[in-house]
Amino acid sequence: MASPEPKDKSYQRRTSPHSPPLRIIIVGAGLGGCAAAAALHHHGHEVVAVLDKVRAFNRLGDSLGLGENAYKLLARWGCSIKEIQEIGNQAPTMRIRRWHDGKVLAEQPLMDMAGYIGHRGDYHDIFLKWVRERGIPIRMGCEVVAYSDAAAPTPSLTLATGEVLTADVIVACDGIKSLARHLVLGAQDDPVSSGYACFRAYFEPSADMRADPARNAFLGEDSVNFWIGPDTHVVQNTLRGGREFNWILTHKDDGDVPESWFQPGDMDEVRRLVADIDPAIREAIKSTDKCLDWKICYRKPLPTWVSPESHRIVLLGDSCHAHLPTSAQGASQACESAGVLAVCLGLVARDEIRIGTRAYEKLRFPRTRVSQTHGEDLRDRWHNVLKNVDGDIEIDPEMVKIKNRPLYAFDAEQDAVDNWDEVSRKVREEFTKGEIEPLCN
Ligand SMILES: Cc1cc2nc3c(=O)[nH]c(=O)nc-3n(C[C@H](O)[C@H](O)[C@H](O)COP(=O)(O)OP(=O)(O)OC[C@H]3O[C@@H](n4cnc5c(N)ncnc54)[C@H](O)[C@@H]3O)c2cc1C
Q1: In this predicted model, what pLDDT tens digit does every residue of 403-431 receive, in sequence order?
Q2: Are residues 165 and 212 in the same domain?
Q3: What CATH number is given to the structural domain containing 52?
Q4: Domain that includes residue 344, residue range
Q5: Atom 2 of ligand 1 has which residue's CA nearest to it?
Q6: Which of 240-254, 283-297, 303-317 is modeled with the greatest confidence?
Q7: Cα–Cα distance between 212 and 286 in angstroms, integer?
Q8: Which parts of the sequence belong to the FAD-binding domain (predicted)?
């Protein structure tokens, strides 16, 4: 039987400022949806249900990072982040290497990129457990097929079964292919190709591989390495305490890779692309049986994250701020958004929910743009720094270092409180004028 509160005795859930508490439905039980459930629960709101269309979660994806900016919020919400840290990669540093010979161009603490890197599926299991520990129902096999944005009495959603559910607020954490985004935008938005795709593989190295000096150079202990070259890079790291091995090869994409997490990759093409990479990693990649091919799709920044009529259906996570893999901040920014939404909904009266949701998008948009552009900047620096230079030229380490650390000091919830007066005043003015200013053009 799930207990309604986390076990940590020092944890204190906040009392709802509303009586009765706001009833909230979350669509999507990915990391974003689970973070939203934990945050809203902590701030005293009633999370009626988290809905997900899949019947069961598989261990999907591979390496994912969670930064300190997310940890501090999760800990505040009563989540035991030790559970995440224990299963994350424990390497103290990561090495950024030259493509053709593996020369270390820069070495920096792992924390500079993304805190502890772990398997997305393993982290997801822990997030789901946190939600269940709070007594919040996760309803699997519930596909949302339509939303109604009626301002009165409340917005609603319809499941594939025909069941209609209503709530004071609906939070759509339904991922990069979000259905809710179409409602919010009032139009279909097409994915934008980033110009790159990734071949990715993770597997348990065989005894043969472990014993083979041509393939085992990075298997002895937890490790994180990057090989950078013109228009390409490889990420390698170990997962589950070194028992699993992950490599990701980013390559130019001519636009014909479908937007999918499950597209099989062509290992012959991989072998061609890594033919001239550092021999220390080459054979480990070339001898891999199979991989996936992920198109790195992007969405243009959205002019709004909130539904136009009720202002009570809101987007959160990849549905409104997807990140490039090089940002290593997709899940962390979803956690930040979760905290800010929960804070904003706690600062408004029941009849002013729309002030809270519109303040939420205004507070979050600039912050997520900074973190998204960090990922673009890093990719561009890595892919260009060795172009048109002599193979042995010395590279200033600063040119290739990962510069995510400044993102960590930020406390998203505190920032929302600090800026509340100014932002909520602006939102009120916009409602008075009858014109909501778009987040971007
Ligand atoms: C399969 C997969 C693998 C990934 N692998 C990696 C990785 O290896 N490394 C990395 O950095 N990032 C990865 N990501 C991205 C990363 O998980 C996200 O950036 C981050 O966790 C925030 O995601 P989210 O919760 O907003 O969306 P998502 O993780 O996409 O979750 C959205 C959820 O909404 C559900 N959903 C969608 N539509 C509906 C609907 N109509 N009705 C009900 N439910 C719905 C989906 O089933 C899904 O569970 C992956 C994402 C996915 C989906």
Answers
A1: 888 899 999 999 999 999 999 999 999 99
A2: no
A3: 3.50.50.60
A4: 23-91+118-189+300-385+398-433
A5: 61
A6: 303-317
A7: 14
A8: 24-351
Percent of all residues in the chain with a pLDDT value above 90, rounded to a whole number: 73
Residue 92 and residue 109 in contact, taking contact as beta carbons nearer than 8 Å: yes
In a domain, 206, yes or no: yes
Q: Note the pLDDT tens digit of each residue in 251-280.
A: 888 765 566 777 899 999 999 999 999 999
Instruction: Give tens-digit pLDDT for 75-100.
Output: 999 999 999 988 888 888 999 999 99
Query: Cα(231) to centroid of ligand 1, in Å?
Result: 27
Are 176 and 63 contained in the same domain?
yes
- What residues are in contact with ligand 1 under a 6 Å CB criterion? 27-33, 51-54, 60-64, 120, 143-144, 173-175, 179, 261, 317-319, 325, 330-331, 334
Which letter does DSSP use for residue 240 in this model?
T
Distance of CA 103 to the CA centre of its chain: 31
- On the question of pLDDT at 34 being above 70, the answer is yes
Mutation test residue for ligand 1: of 64, 163, 248, 333, the one with most atoms within 8 Å of CB: 64
Under the banding of pLDDT at 50, 70 and 90, the label for residue 7 is low
411 exposure class (CB count in 10 Å sphere: 0-12, 13-18, 19+): middle
Report the separation in Å between the CA atom of 352 and the middle of ligand 1, taken as the mean of its atom positions: 30
DSSP count for the chain of H helices, then E strands: 12, 17
Which 3 state secondary structure label does DSSP give 86? helix
CB 74 within 8 A of CB 335: yes
**Cα–Cα distance between 29 and 358 in angstroms, integer?**
23
What's the CA-to-centroid distance between 431 and ligand 1, angstroms? Answer: 33
Pair 220, 327 in one domain = no
DSSP designation for 325: G
Scanning 309-352, the segments in alpha helix (DSSP H) are 318-321, 330-346
The DSSP call for residue 295 is: E
The count of residues in the chain is 441
CA of 272 to the centre of ligand 1 (A): 31
155-181: pLDDT as tens digits: 999 999 999 999 999 999 999 999 999
306 φ, ψ to 5°?
A: -130, 140
| 28 Cα nearest atom in ligand 1 | 34
> Residue written as tokens 């987040």?
439
Task: Give, using CA atoms, the residue closest to atom 12 of ligand 1.
Answer: 64
